[in-house]
Design goal:
It contains five helices and seven strands. With about 160 residues, the chain is an alpha+beta fold. Strands 1-2-3-4-5-7-6 form a seven-stranded mixed beta sheet, with helices on both faces. A hairpin with a 4-residue loop joins strand 2 and strand 3. The longest helix is centred in the first third of the chain and has 18 residues.
């Protein structure tokens, strides 16, 4: 069975952002029971959103990057660290590499903004996924929306300038 091809892009258009929110609703609100009023927040207006979309236009996954002042409270005030969050992959797209592609796109967005690391709060059941992508857990387990989480971080190296 061949997997459908997909693309990952920054969600700059309104329709792309709505697709991001729809995937998040499907995964977090419907599937995991996170209250809708805490799933969407003021950070959505300032975040860099990324979207994975199948070649026929069906949204497969989404995530977001907070940076600068928007991320400060999540990264102990370190403005050189971004905050990856709201990573969601539709049930039908799991196992296709969509989650990893979204994480890499968020890391690319962090590099483009001059950040040196990306932090995230991973559901404990997803620790292995993030560890395979180079993230390291730190600190104690804590609840978020009633789900156990751990903080994780990965350094992101700036891209080397292209030689002429």
């Amino acid at each position: 069975m061949t997997s459908p091809s997909y693309a990952v892009r920054v969600a700059e258009e309104g329709a792309d952002r709505e697709a991001c929110f729809a995937v998040r609703r499907e995964v977090f609100v419907v599937e995991q029971g996170v209250p809708e009023e805490i799933e969407y927040d003021a950070y959505d207006a300032v975040a860099v959103h990324v979207l994975a979309v199948r070649e026929d236009g069906v949204p497969l996954g989404a995530g977001r990057l907070l940076y600068g002042e928007a991320a400060a409270s999540k990264v102990d005030g370190d403005l050189t660290v971004g905050s990856l969050g709201r990573l969601a992959v539709a049930k039908a797209a799991r196992g296709l590499g969509v989650g990893a592609a979204l994480v890499r796109a968020i890391e690319d967005a962090a590099r483009a903004r001059g950040l040196r690391a990306v932090d995230l709060h991973a559901q404990t059941q997803a620790l292995g996924f993030y560890e395979r992508l180079g993230y390291e857990a730190y600190g104690p387990e804590f609840p978020d929306a009633g789900i156990p989480h751990r903080a994780m971080r990965r350094a992101v190296q700036p891209r080397a300038p292209k030689r002429r």
